[in-house]
Q: What sequence folds into this?
């Protein structure tokens, strides 16, 4: 397993993911070509999108596809966005030779939508497929991988089920395969959710503590998350969103046996947000011929929030797995 070389470990501080550099200086230092844009989705909403790739790729499309190892489509978690901490992972992957793409989910970051409001996950799945397909169509020969954190993991599973043979690998990091009993709404609130979602869909009644306090072990990283200028909500999902999350977890439990894509699942053993046993169930149920489960004892929900040594272990696993499968896919395509 390789060292992760994740910028969170050697550059970020509690005030900025870029350390003492500006964002532009950060990208220049890492020799990354970064592009931002907006796309209009099916509902005529503006969705913020980003791509990253090594700056020294050839200007010829055919040549740069030969040089690039693959494409990684990233899906962020609830209350997060595709920038700030997420983009540090994107930069690390781009430095390994991958084209990386991501978007801000509706109601998150710079995308349209009521903050944190996700009454129908399919709309977000549609956004992801629309954007990821557009990037893939411009790079048709690259091995392609989905990487999802937390809620993004659940969305990535739904994308994989919908686009069954269109991805070469799926990485789930702290994935929302089930919501931890320690984090679910207390009874009878859970039973009242359907009524609350109908009468007051944006009423925030469910979670009492901000997600970051339970998710990130390192205190300085919690402070860094709180300073994200694009952060629009800090926890407490609205009633309609909470109900949809419970429905999605139930759907994944029923359908995960249809997953056939090569699969890597990483989960913190002390995750009190997303249920580690639900992640184990997905691993055991998936029909994937190649599948790996890594549960890290003592680690929390957001694995990027762990100590420097633990981040090296976790993301070393992620990067090695994606690189190995990219090489394998390219070889099998040649044959």
A:
């Amino acid at each position: 397993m390789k060292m992760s070389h994740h910028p969170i470990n050697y550059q970020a501080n509690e005030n900025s993911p870029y350390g003492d550099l500006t964002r532009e200086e950060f990208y220049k230092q890492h020799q990354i070509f970064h592009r931002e844009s907006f796309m209009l989705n099916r509902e005529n909403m503006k969705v913020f999108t980003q791509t990253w790739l090594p700056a020294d790729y050839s200007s010829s499309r055919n040549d740069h596809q030969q040089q690039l190892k693959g494409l990684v489509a990233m899906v962020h978690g609830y209350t997060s966005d595709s920038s700030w901490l997420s983009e540090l992972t994107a930069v690390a992957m781009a430095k390994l030779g991958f084209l990386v793409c991501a978007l801000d989910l509706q109601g998150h970051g710079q995308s349209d939508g009521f903050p944190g409001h996700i009454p129908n996950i399919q709309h977000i799945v549609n956004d992801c497929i629309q954007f990821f397909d557009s990037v893939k169509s411009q790079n048709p020969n690259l091995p392609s991988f989905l990487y999802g954190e937390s809620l993004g993991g659940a969305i990535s599973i739904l994308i994989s089920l919908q686009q069954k043979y269109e991805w070469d690998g799926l990485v789930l990091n702290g994935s929302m395969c089930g919501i931890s009993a320690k984090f679910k709404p207390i009874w009878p609130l859970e039973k009242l959710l359907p009524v609350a979602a109908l009468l007051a869909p944006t009423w925030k009644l469910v979670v009492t503590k901000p997600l970051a306090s339970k998710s990130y072990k390192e205190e300085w990283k919690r402070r860094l998350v709180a300073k994200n200028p694009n952060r629009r909500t800090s926890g407490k999902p609205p009633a309609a969103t909470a109900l949809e999350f419970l429905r999605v977890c139930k759907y994944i439990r029923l359908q995960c046996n249809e997953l056939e894509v090569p699969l890597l699942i990483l989960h913190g053993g002390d995750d009190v947000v997303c249920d580690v046993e639900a992640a184990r169930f997905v691993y055991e149920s998936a029909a994937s011929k190649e599948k790996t489960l890594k549960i890290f004892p003592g680690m929390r929900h957001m694995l990027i929030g762990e100590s420097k040594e633990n981040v090296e272990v976790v993301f070393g696993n992620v990067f090695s797995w994606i690189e190995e499968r990219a090489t394998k896919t390219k070889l099998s395509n040649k044959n």
